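Materials and Methods. Structural model of Pentatricopeptide repeat-containing protein At3g61360. The 503-residue sequence of Pentatricopeptide repeat-containing protein At3g61360 from Salvia splendens was retrieved and submitted for structure prediction as follows.
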Amino acid sequence: MMLLTGRNCKIVQHLNICKRQSVALFCSSIEMGTQIERVVRMISDHPFPDQPLRPTLQRQIPPTALSPPFVENVLGSLFGAHTNGLKAYEFFKYCLDCKLYVPSSGAFDKTLHILARMRYLHKAWELLEDIRRSHPSLLTLKSMSIMLSRIAKSQSYEVTIEAFEKMEKDIFRGKKFGTNEFNVLLRAFCTQRQMKEARSVFHKMHPRFPPNTKTMNILLLGFKESGDITAVELFHHEMIRRGFKPNSVTYNIRIDVYCKKGCFGDALRLLEEMERAGFSPSLETITTLIHGAGVARNISKAKHLFEEILRRSLHPDTGAYNALLSSLVRSKDVHAAAQLMEEMEKRNIEHDNVTYHNMFLGLMRSDGIDGVSALYTKMVKKNFVPKTRTVVMLMKFFCQNSRVDLGLDLWNYLVEKGHCPHSHSLDLLVTALCARGRVEESIACSKQMLERGRLVSERVFQMLERLLVEMGESEKLEELECLIQKLKQLLPSRPADNMNDRI
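The predicted structure was written out as C-alpha cells:
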C-alpha cells in the first residue's frame, strides 16, 4: 500500500511539474509578444536622426533576449510598421554584434527587404557583402529574389541584369548558378509585369540555363499579371510546343486570369479539363473560382463552390472565406458578409487585412459612416492593425464624412502601435484638420511622421507653411523645416544615372 501511495505521489508530482512547465511556456510566449511590441515601439519612436539608436538598444535589450524567433518577429513587425529602414538595419547589426545571437535567414531577409523597399539599395548591397563574409549560409534564393525584384521595380533592365551578374560573381561567389537562379531573375521582371524584358532575358539566357516547367509557369504568371488572356493562351501553346507538360500550377494560373477578367464559364471549363488531365483542384483553385464567381456576380455559384471545399475533404482557410465574403459584398449582401465574419470567429479562422478591407468597402456603400465606425471600433478592440491600403481608404472616408475625430483616432492608434502611417494618410488628415483650424494637431502629426524617419509631402509642408506664416509662428515653421532638412540628408535620393551610384 505504501509502495502504491509513493508511486501515486511521484505521478502527481510529475503532472504538477508538467503543468508548471506548460504555464511557464504560455507565460513566456505572452511575455515575448509584449517585449516584441515594446521594442518595436521603442525603435519606431526613437528620434531620428537626432540621436544614435545603438546606445538605446544596448540599454533596453540585453543580449540574452536576442533569440532567433524574437529578432525575426521584431524585424517582421518593423517591416509591417513601415519603420525607417536605417533603424531596422541598425537593430539587426546590433544583434549580429552580440556573440550569443545566431542569425536566421528569416531575420536577414526581412532586414534586406526593409532596406530595399525604402530604396536604400546602397545599404542593401552593403548588408549582402557583410553577410557573404560572416554568414554565407544565410544567402538564399529568397534573398536574391528580394533584391532583384526591388531593383527591377525602380531601375532599368540593364541595371537589373548587372545586379544579377554581381550576385553571381561576387555575392554568391563559389556557387554555380543554374536554372533556379535564372528563374529568380525572370520572376523579378514578371512580378513587375515587365514582359518585354522577361522575354528578352529568356531568349538571351535560356541556352545557358535550361528552362524547366517552373520557368515556363513563371513566364505564364507574368502574362497573367499583365491581364492579357490572349498572351496567356499564346504562351501556353508555346509552352506545350517546346515540350513542357502543363501541371496543376499551370492550370491554376490560367483559371485565375479568366476569373479576374470575368470569363467565369471559361474558368469552369478549364477546371473540368484540369480534372480530366489527372490534377485534383486544390484549395487555392476553388478559392480562385469563388472569387471568379463573385466577379461574375454569380453568388449562388460562389456559395456552391464554397460548399464544394468540404465535399472535397479540404479545409477552408481565411483566403477561402475572404473570396466568399468579397462575392457577397459585390452582390451588395453586406448582412450575409457580416454573418460570414461571425462564422469565421466561431471557427477560429482569423480575420486578415483582406477581410476587413472588403467588409469596410461593403459598409461604406450600404451603412455609411455608422457601419464603418462600428466595425472600426471592433477592429481596434481586437488590436488588429490594418495595412496601408486599408488605412488610406479609412482615413479618406472619415475625413470626407466630417469625422476627422475618427481619422485622428486612427492616426494615434497606429502611432501607439509603433507604426508609421503612409504619407497619403497624413495628407488627408492634415488637409481635414487645417480646414477646421486645427493647425496645432496638424503640426503634431507631421512631426511624429518626421521623427519616425519619414518625409511629409510637399503638399503638407506648403499647407502648414502658409498657415504658420499667417499666424506669425515663425519658430514652429523653422523647427519643421529643420526636421525636414536633416531627414533629406539621410533618405535615399531618386534612382541615379550610373551603375556605381545604384549598386
